[in-house]
């Protein structure tokens, strides 16, 4: 009997302990025109950092940097496609995907957390955070009142809620606010073909899905101040993006929020985004500090977008477009000219904001944490080369009468080699209107040209001799993440291939090269052919680990793996000429490197790791 009573007592203690853990330690509310923390009016001084863009071992350091800059909150997007890695396959646990660990760490550092789950994120991220395969679902239309799409959103939101529900401030965690949709007012303006009533029905449905999933903290929207009519959602606080006019901010929030605040700029830009083949964007520290002071003087809450940008590792970068270019792919670095650099360094902007914040805030601003060590690697020798065509020769192609898109091939990212054999000679203009996005063209293994959506080049003259093979290696440079064209995001060759206006059909072979894992060259002998895409392999040793930057300025175009991790794309056109290699990816002793070089105009024998990044060197004539 005593054993039974003891067991019962232990069980009751565990139950009561679990219940206590779910109790709120603090409170956060929006009331009487204010943000209230533990019942007291508070101003949110937030900075944006995306856990997906920063190696998990560095999260605490970066969050401590934010705290040392004088901030009291961190905002983060959650990218749906980063967690649903394949249809129905979810990952919230491994590496940079461990969202619970990120949120807990932020709380331990002393920061409130603002969650931005989308489902649409934008953020210069591949497809704005949407899984690429949504485009394959018959009848599904993204970002509108569409049953198939909303059903998919519901699954994602519920999966996410299961991970973070108990980390809300109402349950004792640090998450104080959650955003419904994102910059939807912009999309409403970009899609006047959709009735406003339909737009509003969709955005209200997203808010309801968040409520149904158990988000019981204040909700907000985020739009340009002139776009609140389309973007505001009843029951959510409207906040403004990029608004520097305090009078206008208060006027528009009052109009859509019952004549009262609180007033917040949810995206205050201390820097800006960057595209390949375009100049690196910079914003002066003086201007950022001046605008920050204006917000502080007027009691306006704000969120620096970005306070720390991080890196678009792998194939995660997205793309924009404008009236002059059909695509503007984002560079691998997401440095953003932010106050905390890509590698987590103090910048003049950081110091200016820190000095200002210390004059205003009543809470303690801690010392700046030590910088992560930086190392130089003078020479990394590349000891083996393998032609990509040798790798392809051991693969089984997908055969079809017409060319197939990446999506048709059930491939999201990387490359596809399109091949066709010609029994009879043909010459003239090769035209691929739907090239998505960059292609190198070969005849009988010899490179004869490039097609490039970025530079609006979709045609070239070719001469295919008798009994010859045409190869077209196509790269996906990242799906568009912002604007009306987000619904038109297929990759690969998306239209018929023509030569002299004649559609080339029959006997197409497609070789899938997703490069989702580091290529293994063990089964291949050394080979090298000038001009053909090539895979380099090497090994280097370090006596101590630290961050470094791989100097890719003398290379052409491709990707780099170190110890199995895809660091992202490089491209000679710039402005980015180095790749950030975090020290946490290295190990003392031997480290392995693989470089996939698409252009292969110059044979390389080595590369090096330098101590200073080069992000602002455009080289269009290389």
Key attributes of the depicted protein:
disordered N terminus, eight-stranded antiparallel beta sheet, alpha+beta, 35 strands, eight-stranded parallel β-barrel, about 625 residues, 12 helices
Overall description:
- By secondary structure, the chain is α+β, with helices and mostly antiparallel strands.
- 22% of the residues lie in helices and 27% in strands.
- The chain has 12 helices and 35 strands.
- It has an 8-stranded parallel β-barrel, surrounded by 5 helices. An 8-stranded antiparallel beta sheet has the order 32-31-34-29-16-35-30-33. A 6-stranded antiparallel beta sheet has the order 17-28-18-24-21-22, with no helix packed on it.
- Strand 21 and strand 22 form a beta hairpin.
- The longest helix is centred in the N-terminal third of the chain and has 20 residues.
- The N and C termini lie far apart (85 Å).
- The N terminus is likely disordered.
The stretches of 5 or more residues where confidence is low (pLDDT under 50) are 1-21
| Tally of helical runs | 12
How many β-strand runs? Answer: 35
Label the structural class.
alpha+beta
Largest sheet strand order: 4-5-8-9-10-11-12-13
Provide the gyration radius in Å.
26 Å
Chain-wise SSE layout:
Blueprint: H1 2-21, E1 28-31, E2 34-37, E3 40-42, E4 45-48, H2 59-68, E5 73-77, H3 80-83, E6 84-86, E7 89-90, H4 99-109, E8 112-116, H5 147-164, E9 175-179, H6 184-190, H7 196-212, E10 219-223, H8 228-231, E11 237-241, H9 246-256, E12 264-268, H10 285-297, E13 301-304, E14 319-320, E15 328-329, H11 348-360, E16 377-387, H12 388-393, E17 398-400, E18 415-422, E19 426-431, E20 435-436, E21 438-443, E22 446-452, E23 459-464, E24 468-475, E25 492-493, E26 498-499, E27 502-503, E28 508-513, E29 534-542, E30 548-551, E31 557-562, E32 565-571, E33 578-581, E34 589-597, E35 606-610
Parallel strand pairs: 4-5, 4-13, 5-8, 8-9, 9-10, 10-11, 11-12, 12-13
Antiparallel strand pairs: 1-2, 2-3, 6-7, 14-15, 16-29, 16-35, 17-28, 18-24, 18-28, 19-23, 19-26, 20-25, 21-22, 21-24, 26-27, 29-34, 30-33, 30-35, 31-32, 31-34
Helix pairs in contact: 2-4, 5-7, 10-11
